[in-house]
């Protein structure tokens, strides 16, 4: 059957643009993404897709409709966390003084590290295959940190001699010795000590010649 009506004009249906996902479908996807993030964060090993669906209160078919493979779910969670970190830096700077914004951002970084707990094997395989570009993620995160450091240096509440690489290395070290969830109190104390060290007052003054 061709797509022309009796007057020779193309049918409206043939020319219609593909429908955007329904609002409820988008909400369902976001909910599944939030649940998967929470499950990945608290897991010691990679949970099954069925376990994630069960935690979300949906059937496995619903989960697969939104995320056809484990890799597609891991990619979505990973990219969502990176966006939260990169946009979070700008949003926090718009709400708080730079030092306070940096401290709040370190908690977001801890969430990102913790989320990898339950998807590490798949994530590493995807990085190795090139499905996820680790170098690009690193650049985005270092740029976010640099934005906060520059704002803090200009405001006079963060040291100007610290690099984004310094902060990233310190945060990885902190969340390695005080992984979340489970050691939030220790991680919080170490993060507070890090922020104390980033204060301009903590910078040793040079002896005058």
Give a short summary of the structure.
This protein is mainly alpha-helical and 209 residues long.
Characterise the protein shown here.
The chain has 209 residues and is an all-alpha fold. Helix content is 69%, strand content 0%. The protein is built from ten helices and no strands. The longest helix is centred in the middle third of the chain and has 26 residues, at 70-95. The chain starts with 11 loop residues before the first helix and ends in an 11-residue tail after the last helix.
Keywords, please?
single chain, 209 residues, mainly alpha, elongated
List strands and helices in order, with pairings.
Blueprint: H1 12-15, H2 23-42, H3 49-56, H4 60-66, H5 70-95, H6 98-115, H7 120-129, H8 134-155, H9 164-177, H10 184-198
Helix pairs in contact: 2-3, 2-6, 3-4, 5-6, 5-8, 6-8, 6-10, 8-9, 9-10
- The level of helicity is 55-70%
Q: How many strands in all? A: 0
Strand content: under 5%
* Count of helical stretches: 10
* Helix-strand string: HHHHHHHHHH
Q: How many angstroms does the end-to-end distance come to?
A: 91 Å
pLDDT under 50 segments (min length 5)?
1-18
Average per-residue pLDDT, rounded, comes to: 85
User: Helices and strands: which structural class?
Assistant: mainly alpha
Main β-sheet description: none
Give the overall shape. Answer: elongated
């Amino acid at each position: 059957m061709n797509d022309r009506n009796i007057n020779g004009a193309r049918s409206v249906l043939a020319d219609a643009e593909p429908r955007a996902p329904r609002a409820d479908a988008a909400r369902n996807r976001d909910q599944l993404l939030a649940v998967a993030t929470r499950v990945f964060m608290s897991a010691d090993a990679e949970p099954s897709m069925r376990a994630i669906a069960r935690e979300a209160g949906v059937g496995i078919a619903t989960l697969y409709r939104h995320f056809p493979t484990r890799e597609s779910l891991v990619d979505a969670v990973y990219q969502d966390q990176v966006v939260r970190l990169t946009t979070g830096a700008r949003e926090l700077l718009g709400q708080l003084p730079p030092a306070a914004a940096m401290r709040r951002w370190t908690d977001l970084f801890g969430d990102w590290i913790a989320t990898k707990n339950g998807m590490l094997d798949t994530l590493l395989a995807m990085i190795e295959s090139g499905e996820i570009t680790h170098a690009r993620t690193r650049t985005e995160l270092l740029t976010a940190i640099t934005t906060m450091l520059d704002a803090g240096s200009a405001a006079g509440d963060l040291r100007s001699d610290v690099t984004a690489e310094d902060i990233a290395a310190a945060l990885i070290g902190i969340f390695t010795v005080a992984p979340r969830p489970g050691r939030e109190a220790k991680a919080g104390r170490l993060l507070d000590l890090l922020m104390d060290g980033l204060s301009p007052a903590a910078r040793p003054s040079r002896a005058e010649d």
